[in-house]
Every structure is written in structure tokens, then in C-alpha cells.
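Note to self: keep these together.
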Amino acid sequence: QTQLEIIRQRRAASVTAARAAYYLALLRLEQGDEDATERLCRETIARAPRADEAVDARLLLADLLAQRTSTRDAMGWLSASYQSASIPWRHRARLAKRLADFSREEGAYVEAIRWYHEAMNLLPSVKGEATYRIASCFEDGGDHELAMLWYHTITQPPWNIRGLLALAKLLERQDRLKEAEALYEQLANAPIPEAGIVRERLAALRGEV
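Structure:
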């Protein structure tokens, strides 16, 4: 028996045991036992619904459901979970974020944007990524002007840099080369890990390579 199994059995009615069940679920998933993974995740949710491991378990179950049946089924299950009265607001934010990601993967950009707004309203710490994803939804949906506007509004690192890089690439694809070059030059001189890649892109744009 692993230490996690001992904790789960000896303290069966405790929150600690419920948390241990989630980490056991991860081990079972690594071993390829999806049925045990699902059972242990549901145990965590039932016994400690407000623990952080409970929302991790919900997200893991959603991923399993998406693989076994469809993304839409996973979204339906997560939406029902989102409405549960036992879900803390911080958990709702993470569920909303995953619902947004699923919607974006399905090409349901309007739905995705709604969920991203919901996520960042509930949890401002995800605003940078949520704003970036909203911009990408507009870009993938063909509204490039709105995409550029949203990329430009991102302030949280590292998503602000990713947003400016995406904006520069979008300008380049639209043959707005002078604007793209100016943005690449701004980023190339910034103290960021991506500066080397940006300088290479800038040199290519100028025909120096």
C-alpha cells in the first residue's frame, strides 16, 4: 500500500482522505486505469467539495469525458457543475476558464468569449491569459481589427508580451509591414526571454537573412 492509500483508508471520513483520493487518481491515470481515476475523483468531489483538489478532480473528469465521448459532453457536465451551490467562486473561475477553452477548441468563439469574460470577472489573476484568448478568438473568427485591439490591451505578464508578438504577426500577415517592424523593434530591445526570437523575425522582415 502507498502512503496515500493508507491515509485514505485510515482517515476515511476526513477531508485529508478526500484529498489523498485525488492524488491517487493521478497515479491511477498514469497507470492507465481510467475507471479507478474516475471513481477516486468522484470520491474527492463528494467528500471535500470545497477543497482545491475537488476542482482539480472536476477538471480531470471533464478531460476524461472529452476523450471518451465528446468535448460537448464534457462541456455539458462542467456547466452543470458550475451551477452547483457547493462550488466556491474561485472554483467557478477555473471551471469557466476550462469551458472557455473547450468552446474555443470547438470553434464556438462567441461562447468562448463569454466564458473568458466570466472567468476573469471571478478571478482577476487570470485576466492576462483570458484577454489573450479572447483576442485569439476574434482572430480565429476573422475579426482581425478587434483581435488587434484586444491583443494591445493586455497588461499582465507574460501575456502582454505574447499579445504584442501575436499583434506583430497579425500585422505582418496583413502586409502592414512598417507597423509590424516597429513593434518587433520595440520588443527586440526589451529585457524579455523572447528578444532573441524577435530579433531573428525582425532581421527576416528586413531581408537581412
